[in-house]
Amino acid sequence: MNQDRRSFFYTLLHSTFGIAAGTILASRSSYAKSRRKTTQPGLVLSTWKHGVAANAAAWDIIVKNGAALDAVEAGARLTEANPEGRSVGLGGRPDREGIVTLDACIMDQHGNAGSVAFLQDIKHPISVARKVMQETPHVMLVGKGAQQFALQQGFRKENLLTEATRKEYQQWRKKSQYQPIINIENHDTIGVIAQDQHGNLSGACTTSGLGYKMHGRVGDSPIIGAGLFVDNEVGAAAATGTGEAVMKTCGSFLIVERMRQGASPMQACKEAVLRIVKHQDYRDMQVAYIAINKQGEYGAFSIRPGFPYAIKSHDLDTLQPSDAYVQK
Ligand code: GLY
Questions:
Q1: 114 CB within 6 A, ligand 1
Q2: In the chain, how long is the greatest CA-to-CA distance?
Q3: What ligand 1 atom has the least distance to the C-alpha of 242?
């Protein structure tokens, strides 16, 4: 391992945000509060605070009897277009070379999937992912090929590095240290999963990935089964947080499979988190999952406190904290 790689992984695992082992306890809080069954089909779940606005955009489509696929794309696009968000689309933090690279994927009710990774200069990777799903025989396009395809499909090139993120990057360059700040805008991918009024499920996931990541790094968000998985007979799940941990455990696929076996959405999310903490050094990472099932139940679980998720249905419009493995 060269010095660059060694210092990257050292700082990844040993940032200044370590926690005392004695504070780690499995959550004992009730599953009941997240097992609410919605009264009539129609439900959107999104990650983090920016999920509230994403849910509103998605709900506009659901409530007009639109398809879950259109709803999740609309929710994801709203977040991608917001220059204030530092981890998605326009205004997302660049990599170590100062280049913004984007990952996204989408799945529909038929089990179709589309994905783009390491995409540059295109504001709406989620819509490019949808085009990959619908206009090509493939699932995933990356880098220059993904950009070339996007341009052929009518997307236009834009500079996604805003003045604010350029200044932050220049500041970061002075030390060039990778120090993840748990829950603070470093991994807050938007995942949007929805059930429409016809009962069909779809999901979308989009991110600029880890701020100041190595050039060429791709996370979990464009990986079907890691950042997102949908099975219209069972449920849907999405991930946010340290993508490496999610990829190594196929987190979203695992959640959907556990729901197939009878676990509630929250139980399934918790089991996926436990799979990470059992084998990986989770001291300096956050990973969180959201899930919904075919019956309209939903849930979430995270490694540590500080992960809120947004819920929208006919009778709910809230942002609530998930239960967590680590208790303060
Ligand atoms: N979960 C987003 C990433 O790790 O890139």
A1: no
A2: 56
A3: 4
pLDDT in tens, 4-58: 333 333 333 333 222 233 233 333 343 344 555 556 899 999 999 999 999 999 9
User: Ligand 1 centre from 218 Cα, in Å?
Assistant: 8
> Tens digit of pLDDT for each residue in 111-144?
999 999 999 999 999 999 999 999 999 999 999 9
55 and 1 both lie in a single domain = no
Rounded CA gap, 124 and 274, in Å? 33
Residue 62 C-alpha to ligand 1 middle, in angstroms?
Answer: 27
Measured from the Cα of 239, ligand 1's closest atom is: 1
Q: By CB neighbour count within 10 A (0-12 exposed, 13-18 middle, 19+ buried), where does 16 fall?
A: exposed
Residue span of the structural domain in which 42 resides:
38-324
Q: Is the CB of 95 under 6 A from ligand 1?
A: no
7 and 62: one domain? no
Residues belonging to the active site:
189
